[in-house]
Design brief:
Layout (H helix, E strand, L loop, with lengths): L4 H21 L6 H14 L3 H21 L2 H9 L3 H4 L10 H20 L2 H9 L19 E2 L2 H7 L1 E3 L2 E3 L5 H16 L6 E3 L2 H23 L2 H29 L10 E5 L5 H16 L12 E5 L13 H14 L3 E3 L1
Parallel strand pairs: 1-4, 4-5, 5-6, 6-7
Antiparallel strand pairs: 2-3
Helix pairs in contact: 1-2, 2-3, 4-6, 9-10, 9-11, 10-11, 10-12, 11-12, 12-13
GO cellular component, one term: anaerobic ribonucleoside-triphosphate reductase complex
Protein name: Anaerobic ribonucleoside-triphosphate reductase
GO molecular function, one term: ribonucleoside-triphosphate reductase (thioredoxin) activity
Length: 340
């Protein structure tokens, strides 16, 4: 809007008086409502009644908008009316699922209390959109952990307890991946962030070797000596593929207690034994194939492939072929991400 030089001078003079008043009265810091009070006072002192009326109306509206952020009834009303800002806030949650609806309702309470717990300047910045305070439905209201790098190696080797079940160390790769999916489901239900499995190929290799030894023992009874090793290896390859495919399907069909698909990441790529290499290839080939009859790209787990000079980076290195497969997978399915 164009203003005349005279009006512009009046506004500049008024702004200077307001700034001077703020600095003289609050040299160490000031709250929003104190600024608003000074602005109103200076407008009235300058007999700018029309402008003062507009400002008071604006202030009242902003106060109302801020209060809505901590108004539980208002927020629940938005949820019941399927407001997109509520039901689609987290892409990992299906708002049509019952336990998701309960979690969203609980999240409204958590956000309301959280905004009151945060320092006012942080809460105000979040509400204005200057910053985004992540996971406000959980933090700072509940003392829950965020992301977790789970010790799958120790749990699989030593056994663990979930609920009422004492779980022993697995005797096959199929059982190992089934246990991993159960661990992920339980950890993800007890926190609000992601679950990571580092060097999953190396973690699972000992259990794939158990499959191989079992098939080799069976072959001694039923297979000609010269074909036993090949028989056992081919059976183990299928076991590895089936186990890794099962893990991908289970992660994508799991719902945690808050109705969310567990945000899971798998790191791999440094193993060099034939079992570790086969697990790496299975992970990538399964992702390339896609989920279901329509071969859709899996959302989870996130795949993280490690590059290492002398291992898979240059042609002629032991795992160069797997790196090439990882590049094909990333081209077709966006993952894996690459670390080096």
């Amino acid at each position: 809007m164009d203003v005349t030089p005279l009006v512009e001078k009046r506004l500049n003079d008024l702004t200077e008086r307001i700034i001077t008043e703020i600095h003289s009265r609050f040299p160490q810091g000031i709250k929003i409502y104190e600024i608003q009070n000074i602005v109103e006072h200076e407008l009235l002192e300058a007999k700018e009644y029309a402008l003062a009326e507009e400002y008071i109306t604006y202030r009242t509206q902003r106060d109302f908008e801020r209060s809505k952020a901590t108004d539980i009834n208002f927020s629940i009303h938005k949820l019941l009316n399927k407001d997109q800002t509520v039901v689609n806030e987290n892409a990992n949650k299906d708002s049509d699922v019952f336990n998701t609806q309960r979690d969203l309702t609980a999240g409204i309470v958590g956000k309301s209390i959280g905004l009151q717990m945060l320092p006012k300047h942080v809460a105000n910045a979040h509400q204005k959109g200057d910053i985004h305070y992540h996971d406000l439905d959980y933090s700072p209201y509940t003392p829950m952990t965020n992301c977790c790098l789970i010790d799958f190696k120790g749990m699989l080797e030593n056994g663990f307890k979930i609920g009422n079940a004492e779980v022993e160390s697995p005797k096959s790769i199929q059982t190992a991946t089934a246990q991993i999916s159960q661990i992920i489901a339980n950890v993800a239900s007890s926190q609000y962030g992601g679950c990571s499995a580092d060097r999953i190929d190396e973690i699972l290799a000992p259990y794939a070797e158990k499959n191989y030894q079992k098939h080799l023992k069976d072959a001694e009874e039923w297979v000609l000596p010269e074909k036993r090793e090949d028989y056992a290896w081919k059976k183990t390859q299928k076991d590895i593929y089936d186990a890794m495919q099962s893990l991908e399907y289970e992660i994508n069909t799991l719902f945690t207690s808050n109705g969310q698909t567990p945000f899971t990441s798998l790191g791999f790529g440094l193993g060099t034994s034939r079992f570790e290499r086969e697990i790496q290839k299975a992970i990538l080939n399964i992702r390339i194939k896609g989920l279901g009859s329509e071969h859709r790209t899996a959302i989870f787990p996130k795949l993280i492939f490690t590059l290492k000079r002398g291992l898979n980076l240059e042609e002629g290195t032991p795992n160069y072929d797997i790196k090439q497969l990882a590049l094909e997978c990333a081209t077709k399915r966006m993952y894996p991400d690459v670390l080096s």
